[in-house]
Design goal:
It catalyses: ATP + H2O = ADP + phosphate + H(+). The protein is built from 29 helices and 20 strands. It is of the alpha/beta class and 658 residues long. The protein folds into three domains: 119 residues, Arc Repressor Mutant, subunit A (Orthogonal Bundle); 244 residues, Rossmann fold (3-Layer(aba) Sandwich); 242 residues, Rossmann fold (3-Layer(aba) Sandwich). It binds adenosine-5'-triphosphate. Adenosine-5'-triphosphate binds next to helix 10 and helix 12.
Length: 658
C-alpha cells in the first residue's frame, strides 16, 4: 500500500484551518481504505467532496489541471501545501483522466460498472449519487422537451386573445413594442410536456401560469373537470404565495370568462399548493420518497414555483416521480441564488434563455397560436428542443423604479451603474449606508429609515397592545395583523458569523429592542421572538425556512406558542415543541428566497468572501417590495461582490445539448 501519511497530514491541517470540511477528509480516507489508491486520485477526491459541499455537482478535470485555488477560495500557498504533500501530480487533463480511469474506485462511463463510488464521465469526476441524479434529470428533460402535443393553433389563438385581451391596451400605452412573451410562454407550454418560464421579480410568471391553466382547462373541453393539477414550491412560504397569486389571477379571469369557461368551479377543484417534500411524500430518516418511478404522482399538470431553489437531488426525485405523460411547468428566476445544496438546475436549463434560440418551427407555431412574431434576434441560433420549451419574461410590472434599475445593474455586472443608482436616488426607495457602523444597523432595526416602514418597532407595539376592538375579539385576526406587520421589514445578511453576520446581529438587535423596552427576554423563548425553522419537522408540521412569531397562548396563560402563516390562515405550535429553530431578526439572503418584504435591508460584511457574489446581491435586492437599504461597513465590497459571478460545476448543460 502506498504511504499517504504526508497527504493526510496536509488534509488535516487544511481542515483545521477551515479550508476543507471534515467530510472531505473522511470521504478521502474511506476511498483509500478500498484499495491501493494513487495520490492524485485522493487529491481529486478531497477536492470533489469539498466542492460538492459548496454546491458543485462535479469536479471539472481542467480546473484540477490548472489552478483550483480560486474556485476553492484558497491561497496559492494552501494549494501548494496539498500538492507537495501528494507528490507529483498530472499537469494535464489527459494525465488526470488516465489516473482516474486506471483506479479501481472510479467507474469510467461506458466501461463495465462495478458500482464504484466515483464516476468519471468524460472530463468530469462525480460522486456516484450526483452523477446518477444529473443523468436522471438530463434524460427526463430531454425526453419531455422533445415530446410534442398536437395543438389546434386557431383555437389556442382564440383563447389567448381573450385571456390576454386587457394587456394589449396596457402594452400600447407604455410604449412596449416587443412581442408579448407571456402569451408566447402560454403557447409554447401548451405544445410541450415541459415548460420553463423564467423572469425577474414581477415579470408576471404567476400571472402567465394562471392564464396557462385557464388555457389548459379550455383546451381540455368537457374533460376539463378531470384534469389533475398540482401546485408546489420548495418552501411552505413560497407554496402559500404561489397559491395566493394564482387564486387572485384566476378570480379576475373567472369574472371575465364567465360565459365561456366555468373557471371558478374548475379552479376550486385544484386544492392547495404544497412543498415539494410533502408532494413527494418525504419520510423521516430516509432520503427516499413515497412517490417515485415505481409509484408515480397522480397528476396531469405539475406547476413548480421558485424552481431556482430546487437542488439537483430534489429535481431528480421529482422528475422520476412524475408520470411521463404529465406536464411539468417550472417557474423561477434564473439569476437568483441557486439552491444551498448541490446543483444549479434552473440556471442550467435556462443557459440559453436570454437569447431565445428559437427554431423556425417554433416561430411559425407561435405566430399561428399566439399571433406573436418572435424577433429575428431571438432566432439567430437553433438552441435545440429545450430552448423551444423555455421562455424568458422580460418586462417587470412591479420593478420599474430605482429598485428595478439597481437589480438590473447588479445582474449585468455593472458595479458603477449600481453605485450610481444607490447614491443618486432622490425618491428614497433605495438608500446606501456606506462605511456603516454596527449601530447604523441597530437603528434601522428599531426604527427603519425615514419615509419607510418602521423597523421592528411596529410589530412589537402591536403585540404590546394586544387584540383591540378593531379585531372584534378575534384572536387570530390580531395574530394575522402582527405577522403581516413583521413581514414589512427584514434584515438580510450575506454571512452567518461575526458582527455583520446573522448570529452577531440577532444578539445585538435583541439587546437593542430590549433596551428600548419593546421586548423582555426571559430565557430562550420570549413574547415577540421571531424564529426560523432550520429543519423539517414532520411531527409539528413545520419545515426548513418557515418563519414564525412567538406570542402568548390565549388558551394557557403563561405559555407561549409560535404562529406561522399558512396561506390565508395561521397556525401555531407550542414553543417548547420546536426543536430546530433560530432567532430571525436577521436572516441570510439564502433563507430569504421566496419571500418579499416592504423594506428590505441587506447587510454586507467588511471583507469579500467566497459566498459573496452577484447572485446573492441580486437576490437580496429583489426581496424588497418598496424600499431597499444597503448597509456596508466597507463600500468596496459591493463592487467585488458584483464582479463575482458564481459558476457551479455541472455536466447538465452539456448533457442537455447532446
Ligand atoms: N400582462 C400583464 N398585464 C397586467 N398586469 C400584469 C401583467 N403581468 C403581470 N401583471 C401584474 O404584475 C404583478 C406581478 O406579476 P406576478 O406576481 O405574476 O409576477 P411574478 O413574476 O410571479 O413575480 P414574483 O414571483 O417575483 O412575485 C401582478 O400584480 C400582476 O397582476
Amino acid at each position: 500500500m502506498t504511504d499517504h501519511t504526508a497527504l493526510f497530514a496536509a488534509i488535516d491541517t487544511l481542515t483545521a484551518d477551515g479550508k476543507l470540511r471534515r467530510l472531505a477528509g473522511a470521504f478521502t480516507r474511506f476511498i483509500a481504505t478500498l484499495g491501493d489508491t494513487p495520490a492524485p486520485v485522493l487529491v481529486a477526491c478531497v477536492l470533489l467532496s469539498e466542492l460538492e459541499g459548496r454546491g458543485h455537482s462535479c469536479l471539472v478535470l481542467a480546473d484540477l489541471a490548472g489552478d483550483p485555488s480560486p474556485q476553492l477560495g484558497w491561497t496559492d500557498g494552501e494549494w501548494s501545501r496539498l500538492r507537495s504533500a501528494a507528490g507529483p501530480l498530472p499537469k494535464q487533463v489527459k494525465g488526470w483522466r488516465a489516473a482516474l480511469h486506471d483506479c479501481e474506485q472510479a467507474w469510467s462511463v461506458g466501461d463495465l460498472d462495478f458500482n464504484q463510488p466515483l464516476v468519471l464521465d468524460g472530463e468530469r469526476l462525480y460522486l456516484r449519487r450526483y452523477w446518477r441524479d444529473e443523468a436522471t434529470v438530463a434524460a427526463s428533460v430531454r425526453s419531455r422537451a422533445t415530446a410534442l402535443h398536437d395543438v389546434d393553433t386557431a383555437e389556442v389563438r382564440g383563447w389567448l386573445d381573450r385571456l390576454f385581451a386587457q394587456d394589449k391596451r396596457g402594452k400600447a400605452a407604455d410604449g412596449d413594442t416587443g412581442p408579448d412573451w407571456q402569451k408566447i410562454a402560454c403557447a409554447a407550454a401548451l405544445r410541450g410536456q415541459l415548460a420553463v418560464i423564467t423572469g425577474g421579480p414581477g415579470t408576471g410568471k404567476t400571472y402567465t401560469v394562471a392564464r396557462l391553466l385557464a388555457l389548459l382547462f379550455a383546451m381540455a373541453g368537457n374533460q376539463a373537470h378531470e384534469l389533475r393539477i398540482a401546485l408546489a414550491a420548495p418552501t411552505g412560504k413560497a407554496a402559500a404565495r404561489l397559491k395566493q397569486s394564482i387564486d387572485t389571477a384566476l378570480d379576475e379571469l373567472a369574472g371575465r370568462l364567465e360565459d365561456a369557461l366555468p373557471l371558478k368551479a374548475l379552479a376550486g377543484r385544484m386544492g392547495g399548493a404544497r412543498t415539494l417534500h410533502s408532494l413527494l411524500g418525504a419520510r423521516p430518516d430516509t432520503r427516499a420518497f413515497a412517490y417515485n418511478a415505481g409509484n408515480p404522482l397522480d397528476v396531469d399538470v405539475l406547476i413548480v414555483d421558485e424552481a431556482s431553489m430546487v437542488h439537483l437531488e430534489m429535481m431528480a426525485a421529482l422528475l422520476a416521480a412524475l408520470p411521463p405523460q404529465a406536464r411539468l411547468i417550472l417557474l423561477g428566476d434564473k439569476d437568483q441564488l441557486a439552491s444551498v445544496e448541490a446543483g444549479a438546475v434552473l440556471g442550467d436549463l435556462c443557459a440559453g434563455a436570454e437569447s431565445g434560440n428559437y427554431d423556425a418551427a417554433s416561430a411559425e407555431y407561435v405566430l399561428a397560436a399566439a399571433g406573436e412574431a418572435i424577433p429575428a434576434a431571438f432566432r439567430e441560433r437553433d438552441g435545440g428542443p429545450l430552448a423551444q420549451r423555455t421562455v424568458m419574461l422580460r418586462r417587470s410590472r412591479r420593478f420599474g423604479g430605482p429598485i428595478g434599475a439597481l437589480a438590473l445593474a447588479v445582474n449585468a455586472g455593472d458595479a458603477d451603474g449600481a453605485r450610481a443608482v444607490l447614491r443618486g436616488d432622490a425618491t428614497g426607495q433605495v438608500h446606501w449606508i456606506e462605511g456603516a457602523r454596527p449601530n447604523d444597523v441597530l437603528a434601522l432595526a428599531l426604527r427603519g429609515r425615514e419615509g419607510t416602514a418602521a423597523g421592528y418597532r411596529d410589530y412589537l407595539e402591536l403585540i404590546r397592545q394586544g387584540p383591540t376592538v378593531a379585531h372584534g375579539g378575534d384572536h387570530e385576526a390580531w395574530v394575522r395583523d402582527v405577522l403581516r406587520s413583521f413581514e414589512r421589514f427584514r434584515l438580510l445578511c450575506a454571512v452567518r458569523e461575526g458582527e455583520w453576520g446573522v448570529a452577531g446581529l440577532n444578539e445585538a438587535i435583541e439587546q437593542k429592542l430590549e433596551g428600548a423596552g419593546l421586548l423582555r427576554r426571559r430565557g430562550e423563548w420570549y413574547v415577540g421572538r421571531p424564529v426560523m425553522v432550520t429543519r423539517n419537522d414532520y411531527a409539528t408540521g413545520v419545515y426548513n425556512g418557515d418563519i414564525g412569531l412567538t406570542l402568548p397562548d390565549p388558551a394557557r396563560p403563561g405559555s407561549l406558542r409560535v404562529w406561522f402563516t399558512d396561506g390565508e390562515a395561521v397556525r401555531s405550535v407550542l414553543a417548547t415543541r420546536l426543536r430546530n429553530v433560530e432567532t430571525a431578526f436577521a436572516m441570510t439572503v439564502h433563507k430569504s428566497q421566496g419571500s418579499e418584504f416592504t423594506h428590505t435591508v441587506m447587510v454586507l460584511p467588511p471583507q469579500a468572501n467566497a459566498v459573496l457574489a452577484r447572485e446573492l446581491v441580486y437576490t437580496g435586492i429583489t426581496r424588497a417590495r418598496e424600499f431597499f437599504t444597503l448597509v456596508s461597513p466597507n463600500a468596496a465590497v459591493l463592487g467585488e461582490a458584483i464582479a463575482e459571478k458564481t459558476q457551479r460545476a455541472s455536466g447538465l448543460r452539456e448533457a442537455l445539448g447532446r
